[in-house]
Amino acid sequence: MNIEPIDYRTAAARLLAERPDIREAITRATLAKEDRRREGYADIDSEAWRDWASRLRRHVLANLDYYLEQAGRALEANGIRVHWAEDAQATCATVLSLCHERGVRRVVKGKSMLSEEIELNPALEAAGIEVTETDLGEYLIQLAGERPSHIIGPAYHKPLSESQALFAERLGTPAGAEPSALAAAARKHLRQRFLAADMMITGANAIAADTGTIALVENEGNIRIGTTTARIHVACVGIEKLVPRLTDLGTLLPLLSRAATGQRLGNYVSLISGPRGAEPEGPDEVHVIFVDNGRSRLLADPPAASTLACIRCGACLNACPVFRQTGGHPYQWAYSGPIGAVLAPGLLGLERGWTLAQASTLCGACDAACPVRIPLSGLLRLWRERAAQAGLEAPGEAPAIRAYARLARRPHRFHMATRLLGRFAPWFGPLVPPLSRWLRGRTLPLRNRNR
Amino acid sequence: MHSYSTRAPDIRHRYAYNPSMRICLVPGCLAETFYPQAIRDSRILLEASGAEVFVPPQVTCCGQPAWSNGHPAVGRELATALLDASAAGDYIVLPSGSCAAMLRVFTPPLLETDSPRRQISAKVHELIEFLDTIVHYRPPTNSLAGRRIVVHHGCHARRELAAVGTVEHLLEAAGATVLDWKLAAECCGFGGSFAVNLPEVSVAMADRKLDALPQCDCVVTPDPGCLMQLAGRAERRGLGLTIRHAASLLREAEQMRQNEH
Is A388 on the interface with B (CB under 8 A)? Predict the structure, then answer.
């Protein structure tokens, strides 16, 4: 297991220096989505909806054992096969063995962050299985050989010109084709893949424990097609993604859609309650793989467990002024933005993930956006505290805090120090680490000159 | 001996609100270090509202830098020491939204439920919010007439203290035009240690804010951290912008009243 800390700073600095166009694309996309979210929250009693959703999700987490058993029974009663996977490797192995047993050569996929988390695509491709992403954004970055940079919008970071060039090269669209023409080309191409596919792999936005129903929300209809045409449907689902009752989805899915894109509801909602019976359409088999991959450990850690209430709407990414500069790639794993920064130490371990908790000004924009009221800035501080306790801070930080605290306890010296620092910092600043980093791109105020 | 004396003329008889009120003015580390004039200006404004202002020399730092960087025990110690040192004030006023939020909002959860310091914490206010909503201070009419001003609120003042509107209110009362700023609610990228831990991203955030500014005469903020960030970046880029602490602009307005007499 990789325990090298994720170096967000270096990756972010490189991106800002080399790819200003990515920053522009991400800023444009996230500001637009943030506006949409505000509008989406404005015409409902969003405070009350968020209170309700927050309590619902926390109730599920507090009773997860009960609801998992109930969901498992209900799914099987519907003829859906249920599998349990301890970690990423076990999940990939389960999918692979389903592929081998059933002679699956071609897989189509719906957009799923869990499949990114467990790196399912490389595992399938290594076994010689052809994998095609069918969400337009996800398809685009698959063609580009990249990773998604946003939970909801995998290609938010892609400038249009780059997508046009990529489609021209790979799908033969005319240079400078309109986005609608690109979508049409992708649709035509993907249609063949859908018809040839043996298996559709999706995530799930939620599973209703009482009825054993898999809920999937999307805008493009690709999930609707894939879960209808392929003979096998496999849903890889995090163990936390349950709701007690099917009727809960009536509020949770609209809230999810509003938080994510400001829509009253995603264009397509698929409620899948089993393989086809006598009907001509639909898969012969439906499988649900419940994936733990560190979640039960996080669940057993009460101050951090509320992270698992997340419904993956991406609202905190759109609200985050730090994410807005860089997009998700510098976070260097599936989840980015505030939720990625608090999931990283929780799921990847403190040693690897603690640095992402530094990638925030604690401005609180994420707290104000989260539809299930995860206390994101509080959790960022919690992980900073745990990193400090584990001695994982940036070099020099612990002694600096100690020295500053000592000084603050001695008012006379403290006031003298502030005067000296204020007067001379602009002159010696370039030589002393925290100030020299400040002076990277900024000046210090000249005490005598300020008005 | 460390104090912020002013030579402001005694004008309290004109704007007296509560002559017996004692206000503890807490400078805050950043203003004390880099913007001492903003503290002097704060004092003038508070005295203009008719109160007696004192700055206890034992007051140092609110503890936020330690608290937000994973050292809550140190943060709690410094916050409680500051509250104790300020306890004699009927109100505790800071020319920094972030420090005020630390003492008023973030500190109580660190205290025991029956701690008497909770009552002290409840007396904490950000300067402009205090002037506008507690003592109903109003700058002289038309003292800033014709000025086009953009206001930036620190994120803690915005979210934890709900102070948005206070600076705007006072500026408009002085006849200034407060301009819309598309990215007004966006963080400036200061974030304390963030500014030095991730300087490249921090600077990019300041640039976004600055690039979205409308044509204006002046940008003001009641937060020294944001002021340092926005002014420091604007100066490095040579943008020729005037960025000031809100107290400094309002003090300028207040002095116009004094000059009339």
Answer: yes
Residues 286-315 of A with CB under 8 A from B: none
ipTM above 0.85, yes or no: yes
Tokens of B4: 């912020």
Q: Which of B74, B208, B231 lies at the smallest CB-CB distance from A405?
A: B74
pLDDT band at A447 (very low <50, low <70, confident <90, very high): low
Would an 8 Å CB–CB cutoff place A442 in contact with chain B? Answer: yes
CA A186 distance to own-chain centroid:
24
pLDDT digits (tens, 9 = 90+) for A210-251: 999 999 999 999 999 999 999 999 999 999 999 999 999 999
Alpha carbon distances (Å) from B68 to A351, A409, B110, B157: 19, 18, 13, 16
Q: How far is CA A301 from the centre of its chain?
A: 21
Largest CA distance in chain A: 85
Contacts of B240 in chain A (CB under 8 A): none
In B, residues 53-112, which contact A (CB 8 Å cutoff)? 57-61, 63, 65-72, 74, 77-78, 81
The Cα-based distances of A376 to A34, A343, A410 in angstroms read: 17, 10, 34
CA dist A1 and A87 (Å) reads: 12
Domain total in chain A? 3
- Sign of the four-CA dihedral B168, B171, B172, B176: negative
Q: Domain range spanning residue A254?
A: 44-291
Torsion of CA A49, A53, A56, A58, to 10 degrees: -130
Q: What is the pTM of this model?
A: 0.94
Task: Identify whether A296 is part of a domain.
Answer: no
Is a pLDDT exceeding 70 seen at residue B6? no
Residue A232 in tokens: 């096998």
Instruction: Give yes or no: residues A54 and A110 share one domain.
Output: yes
A219 and A271 housed in the same domain:
yes
Statement to judge: residues A86 and A29 lie in one domain: no
> Residue A365 and residue A417: Cα distance in Å, rounded?
34
How far apart CA A166 and CA A146 sit, in angstroms, is 12
pLDDT of residue B17: 53
Burial class (CB in 10 A: 0-12, 13-18, 19+), B54: middle
Strands B177-178 and B148-151: parallel
Domains and CATH numbers, chain B: 8-134 (3.40.50), 148-259 (3.40.50)
Instruction: Output DSSP code: residue B182.
Output: T
What's the pLDDT score for residue B9?
42
- Asked whether residue A52 falls in the same domain as residue A84, the answer is yes
- Taking the C-alpha atoms of residue B117 and residue A409, their distance in angstroms, rounded to an integer, is 18
Asked whether residue A128 falls in the same domain as residue A239, the answer is yes
* Structural domain contains residue A426: yes
Contact B100, B125 (CB under 8 A): yes
Q: Is residue A345 part of a domain?
A: yes
- Whether chain B has a CB inside 8 Å of the CB on A32: the answer is no
- A300 belongs to a structural domain: no
CB distance A435 to B224 below 8 Å: no
A226, A108 in Cβ contact below 8 A? yes
Contacts 24+ apart (CB under 8 A), A445-450: A445/B34, A445/B35, A445/B228, A445/B231, A445/B232, A447/A422, A447/A423, A447/B33, A447/B34, A447/B36, A448/A423, A450/B34, A450/B35, A450/B37, A450/B38
